[in-house]
Amino acid sequence: MAEELKICPPLITEKLEIAVPNYFLGNWLREQITIKNKISALYELKTISSYTESLLIKFFPEIDMSLWNFESIKWGIIDSLEELNSFKESSPLSHWINKYLDNKKTIDGDIYNLIKKITNNFIDYLIFRPEIISEWNRYKIDSVNLFKNLNSNQYWQPILYKLLEKKISEKPSCLYMIEVIKNLRKIKKFQIKVPNQIYIISDNNLSRLHIKFYSELSKFTKVNLYLLSAGDDLWNRINCLEGKLEFDDNESKFNLNNTNIEKIFGKFGANFQKLIEENIYEEGINYKNNQIYIDPTNFHDKKDIPLLNQIQKRLIDNNRNDFIVNERDDSIILCEHFNQHSQLEYIRKKIIEIINSCENIKYSDIAVLSPQTNQIKPYLKYIFNNELINGEKIPYFFIDEDNNDSPEIYKFLIDIIDIANEKITLEKIDYFLSKKVTQNIFDFDITEKDEIIFLLTQVGFHWGLDSNERLGEEKNTLEWCINRITLGLIYDKEDNLINFNLKPFSLNNISLDLKKWVKLLIDFKKYINLLRGSFSYRSWIEKIKFILKSIADSNAKFNLEISEINRIFDNYEIPLIPNDLILLNVFREILISCINKAKYQRKSRINKILVSDIENSRLIPHKVIFLINMNSVYYPKLSKNENINLLNNKYHLGDPSVFEREKYAFLELLIACRDKFIITWVKNDKNNKKLDVSFPIKELISFFDRFLNKGQRELIIKYYDLNKKEIIHLASSKIIKSNYSLVEFLDWNEKKYDIKNYKLSELIYWFKNPQKYWLNKKNISPKQIFVHHPDEEYVSNLQKSQLITKIIQELEIDNQNFIGDVKKLNINDQLVENGIIMPKNSFPIKEKEIKDLLESLSAILTQHNEINRIYAKSNGNKEEYFVADDTVIEIIHAKLSLSRLIEAWIKSLFISSLKKNIKNTKVIFRTENHYNSQIIQPPGVIESNLILEDYINIFKNYSEKCLPLPPESTYKYVEAKIKSKNEKKAFTDRWIGNKFFSKGEKDNIEMKLCFGDEKEPDFFFGNNNFDKLSFRLYGPLIEALKK
């Protein structure tokens, strides 16, 4: 094409239009023509439908050819449902139509999915059955001729078409194409109406009508049809039967002696070639068939031609040369992997190996393609785009149907819609605030997020956005919590605010900008309420635009993205959209579809690996192609034969077949690959369920078996359990063991930091979870697994902790009547109020559990005459304490874990460093159904300050890099050494655990990410700094407990 344009260039003022299969190939083509001809021409790349419509407009300038598009048909069908219901022929749809009408014309998910199916069928008729559309167009809606050649359960379709005709002002473009084909010679000034040359690049995407249309035009102007084919004369090579689809049992067709690659994968391309040949013969068209294939073997010495290029050459020219396989040939590989993790790890390693060993291959020369991108999406950022993994960051450009690389504002809209569809809980708020896009829009970090989540817990948030979500009950909702925090900013806790019927919440830590967070939570609540309900399309758009304006007013850096989304909304608006109510989940799908139409034009792929589905990228040449997830459940997609689709009444050559189209894509990728073609599949899914390799790939392996000896086969075809060299279990897999270690060596070097500027809450959080803090800072948030104990017959430990915490917060232990209030407490009311539901006969048991707990707590608290609330402040940190004489009272309504003990210790150091009169901290904690206590004796003011300063410096050093000490195992190590016990055994027991009874600390997800799956204890002991840092961290705490 570049040569053609060079010989016959368009006029300088002429805009050259080229029909291409998709945007990605068009973009690549534009670049190649520009490079080849050393000039950037005014090219406009269009789909074949858009290109044909633009030609038709030259013949019919008053007609809008684009009216019969997917969106117009979809909304027109929705607007026609009520009228369609008045026809008796609509009975096959009566269930859905009645549901739609009974729900006051509300469009739910079922209705919307049905409408999309019908719309897709009508699009098929416009493209592949224009003769049916022409017949329907001829007759009136009451004519029996509409039902010609249809079954009675299909009669509703022509009626629906006639209803659409009334709503869409013009005929479909296919009817104008038929008119041009019949009357082209009669059209005046024909030469003015068509370009001198027509350029079409086709990948078998032309229908019979398109071929006839351009065949007719070719009688009067030059039509350049560039057919992207895997080879010539595929029809005769495959020897399919004309006009018959062969959907026989695949196994019966499996013939080892007669298998070739085009027979396995090429039927779709063969059908299209036959369709063109038939049309050319029928129309008597003179055509020139130029074979412009490039011989892929020309770039190598005859003895060293890679197997990939030999296979490509045979596909192209159908030669019968024997394949010669070099012992070092890795141009084509078929490889099985244990699961998705190991498959992507293999690809990551292979990419790094190729980039490092091949100077002429860049990241942009590599593509990773999958039949379904949703299978690999969850793993991408951890496997490819994380510089922490073995120090390698692999840049990638991701394309998928969910628009993963869309603007951040778009992602935020999808997130807020998703959360609005669900019950608002602390976990949902935590998840929403953990999203990077939310943090960027509202300008906060993950540490602030953790603080606000903790604060909401302290304020008393239980669940629910407001009283509407909790059926009139406002208490413990998000709105109730926001009001308490707001009052706490204005009033002291002691103020009696009878008019508000609400107590202000005393703020424990002012390091947070609470005014900012109150506004953020109010906006969050406002957005959720705005999106709850069913509204018309236009109302939905107004609501989204309101949210976008609210964001733009507070954060100007997103204005460009917001303007772009508003522009897309404005362009999407069509007159046919009715005012029917649309459910939120349906609007979400409409929003995705709306954005997807404009999603790729703004993307940039500068030296990045392409990660995509097969369909979007099958035609773009790459030096290296990884074709992954080639399992039978993913590839090829099985055809869903919709019984309402009229194409199923009779097969015509050229009809679409998803099954054959998917298989043919393999050949297109094979031809598009230049150097290395690597095909992989997995043996197990994420639930360890066995998966089969795709049957076409099995046939391909059998094709190789015909000419490969044993050594060559092992070079090209690799099985996961080949020779039993790999263990099947994920936990003990050597692949996973080494690859998931983010820390390959321990960094003990420290710098001196400014110790005056710090947040106490951050220091506590880091001390409790140093590895998790570091991972979060690197935007890695490992999911924690909640362990449920089904043998808890009474109130669960979690319920106990939440209930007692809430009761103590409300009664307040510094209240002089606390003990009396506890005795008066109605436990049954508290159980019901906190959503602890149980059979009536179990109420006494549960009531006794809670009473025993409260009595146990009261017994410990009565040992102190008076408990007062005080505040300690220093360097912008403020902490609330309950103090009895010289003892701080710290209550933990759960077991005393190391992390809870550490929190009490840091808070004890903080107050001891400021107040001389504080001698002890009494940690009161729960063990099953009673409370115990533990005394912490911090050192004096000077020593507390020194320890705190050292902790701050350690924190600032190891928040930038991973702390080389696993907390629990190291604590056991220090404790054993202080008590003159075997410290290495203590560390090892906690690190490894007992395989029969309890897991070790190494099994925690953050430990696996940081240190790998199977790091031995000696990994940590191998440096003298281990002892020093261990004792600096945990020695003072253990000494304080020892006293």
From TrEMBL:
Taxonomic placement: Bacteria, Bacillati, Cyanobacteriota, Cyanophyceae, Synechococcales
Listed InterPro entries: DExx_box_DNA_helicase_dom_sf, P-loop_NTPase, Restrct_endonuc-II-like
GO MF, any single term: DNA binding
Biological process, per Gene Ontology: DNA recombination; DNA repair
Keyword DNA repair: yes
Name of this protein: Exodeoxyribonuclease V gamma chain
Organism, scientific name: Prochlorococcus marinus str. MIT 9401
Superkingdom as given in the UniProt entry: Bacteria
Pfam family, one: Exonuc_V_gamma
Keywords: ATP-binding, DNA damage, DNA repair, DNA-binding, Exonuclease, Helicase, Hydrolase, Nuclease, Nucleotide-binding
E.C. number(s) listed in UniProt: 3.1.11.5
Statement: the UniProt record of this protein carries the keyword Cell cycle: no
